[in-house]
Amino acid sequence: MAETKTKAMSLREKLMRIQVELKAPKNLYNSFGKYKYRNAEGIQEALKPMEKTYNVTTILTDEMIELSGRVYVKAIATIMDCETEEMISTTAYAREADAKKGMDEAQVTGATSSYARKYALNALYLLDDTKDVVINPGRTYSVNIFEYVGVGRLSSGIYTQGIMCFRNTVQ
Fold it and tell me: Do residues 131 and 59 make contact, with C-beta atoms less than 8 angstroms apart?
């Protein structure tokens, strides 16, 4: 029955329903920072039943780019309608750290990719991550406001190591 309903829905309608219905709890805990958080894998796991219901799939891709001598991971999260092949995408960027204690270069790139993918998924599915940040006195934080044109909502991206950009595109 749900399948019949989804055939008459546009991809934007399907996306809107997923955004409203998606429950991706912060099921992980950082004992050092004493806060709960979610990761990209948890978001993807929460999405699977809805992808089947609405006959859509989520595609994640990464691209390495250089800006002003620094390396960034550009992560793109795309929802694709399996019936029409219409797509809506969001993009997030995360900067690789110069060095991360206890990690080799491949691990730094992998962690940066996971972080960028999480924020691309957050933008696509309108997941609020603003409560993830623990404010510590004497530390600098940046808050940027981005407009998600494709879904008509303002939200904030908080990132403490570099730039965070979100962009929606319809293909």
Answer: no
Q: Which residue has better confidence, 106 or 132?
A: 106
What is the C-alpha to C-alpha distance for residues 58 and 77, in angstroms, rounded to an integer?
Answer: 7
Taking the alpha carbons of 76, 46, 112, 142 in that order, is the dihedral positive or negative? positive
DSSP state of 25: -
pLDDT digits (tens, 9 = 90+) for 38-62: 889 999 999 999 999 999 999 999 9
Phi, psi of 136 (to 5 degrees): -115, 130
127-157 residue pLDDT tens: 876 544 444 444 433 333 333 333 323 333 3
Phi/psi-derived region of residue 126, left when phi > 0, alpha when psi is between -120 and 50, beta in every other case: left
Which of these, 78, 111, 87, 86, lies nearest to 97 by C-alpha position? 111
Please report, for residues 92, 123, 146, 148, the alpha-carbon distance to residue 154 in angstroms, rounded to integers and kept in the order given: 15, 10, 6, 6
Burial 37-72 (b: 16+ CB within 10 A, else e): bbbbebbbebbeebbebbbbebebebeeeeeeeeeb
